[in-house]
Amino acid sequence: MTKVVKFGGSSLANAGQFAKVGRIIRSDESRRYVVPSAPGKRNPKDTKVTDLLYHCYAMAEAEENFAPALKKIQERYESIINGLNLTLSLNKEFQEIAENFKNKAGEDYAASRGEYLNGIIMANYLGYEFIDAAEVILFDKDGEFDADRTNEVLTARLKECERAVIPGFYGAKEDGKVKTFSRGGSDITGSIVAKAVRADLYENWTDVSGFLIADPRIIKDPEVIKVITYRELRELSYMGATVLHEDAVFPVRKAGIPINIRNTNAPEDEGTLIVESTCRMPDYTITGIAGKKGFVAVNIDKDMMNSEVGFGRKVLAAFEEHGISFEHLPSGIDTMTVFVHQEEFIGKEQQVLSAIHRLAQPDSIDLEGDIALIAVVGRGMRSTRGTAGRIFSALSHANVNVKMIDQGSSELNIIIGVKNCDFEVAIKAIYDIFVVTRI
Ligand code: ASP
């Protein structure tokens, strides 16, 4: 059995957190490949090392004196080293970093040092081999991640070693220049490593006990989702529920490797298991609820729309012309509504409207802004009758007016549009009916 374990920044923020991570890794022989993030926040007011590095490098770019800022970062690592009683010095590394900052090695290089240095400490602490991600995570000359070449090189390299630490978040281009993924990208590295070693499980350790059924800022102590499929996860993440970097799913999903979200501060919790498919039904009819505010409904009317071939295409072309993607497209016989992001739409509103008039000649167009979309997601809905009925009776009891309903034919989700101001009340009502009262 082989597990790849990735630890997020809050799991590695100080020596105490490192010690917890050490205990987790040592408690299971199969945790052979470790992917660390850079040290994160030690308290809510703290700054992540990655952000300190970006800031410090901006000073170097502006040819300001960045030495004190870099010293602060070094002290942060030294307090981890000292707290763990390691005999390790990072002086040489910091000298090299200072030199490279002076030579303007690039923002990506600067940010990547957070993971690089944490990886060196972690390898020393565990007695595992350290592998610089720049040697094994490869980007092409345009800066695109090169999945095939990486998999080849990484598989060959890891075959040689029983246990290793590979820092997250970065790799290198063909010319050796360091390149990072987008923020939170250590999740992607973990997934790539899991694929390369054909791991049985990719454990992603963070500071929550898994993916929650609903947003904890709206629902107090929501329950954790025990098992979720990749498709359900995608639906919920798209609507704003995030624990994992979006791109982290692809490498392991293709390789059929499940992801287990775990909590470094509560290792006894089982967390959330993300799988390709499962016959395990969720505890409740729904797997999760997520949503976003800030949409506009563009309602278009035209008599006999139903018989006009190509009407929808012409309307959508008006949005396409202005680079606006649509979210949902409910329609009636002589009406069609296009849901778009308000922020994206607002600046181009009049141009889009005149393009619709020009291309599709509607009778009228009416706009309604400040709409929130809520996705109720669950593989269990397919085999349960009355899910939609329960949602709408819960919403009507909560005095929420439903503006739009859209159910995908996969019966995996129901999307509901409500006014922004009803958003929280609506989510509470849906959570209550399915999870609290379990009617
Ligand atoms: N340290 C990087 C960040 O703060 C990458 C990561 O933590 O995954 O975004």
Main sheet overview: 8 strands, mixed
Taking all residues together, what is the mean pLDDT?
95
Bound molecules: aspartic acid
Q: Report helical residue fraction.
A: 25-40%
Strands, total number: 16
Strand content: 15-25%
Structural shape? globular
Supply the number of helical segments.
15
| Low-pLDDT windows of residues | none
The whole-angstrom Rg is 25 Å
How is this structure best described in words?
The protein is an alpha/beta fold and 439 residues long. Helix content is 39%, strand content 20%. The protein has 15 helices and 16 strands. It has helices spanning 15-26, 49-61, 67-83, 91-102, 107-126, 133-136, 147-159, 186-196, 230-238, 249-255, 311-321, 342-346, 349-360, 387-397, 423-436, and strands spanning 3-7, 31-36, 129-130, 164-165, 170-172, 178-180, 201-206, 227-229, 259-263, 272-275, 288-301, 326-328, 335-341, 364-377, 404-407, 413-419. The strands form three sheets. The chain has an eight-stranded mixed β-sheet, with helices on both faces. Helix 2 (49-61) runs antiparallel to helix 3 (67-83) and helix 7 packs across helix 8. The longest helix is centred in the first third of the chain and has 20 residues, at 107-126. 43% of the residues are buried. Bound molecules: aspartic acid. Aspartic acid (ASP) is lined by residues 9, 37-38, 48, 50, 114, 168-169, 183-186. Aspartic acid binds at residues 9, 37-38, 48, 50, 114, 168-169, 183-186.
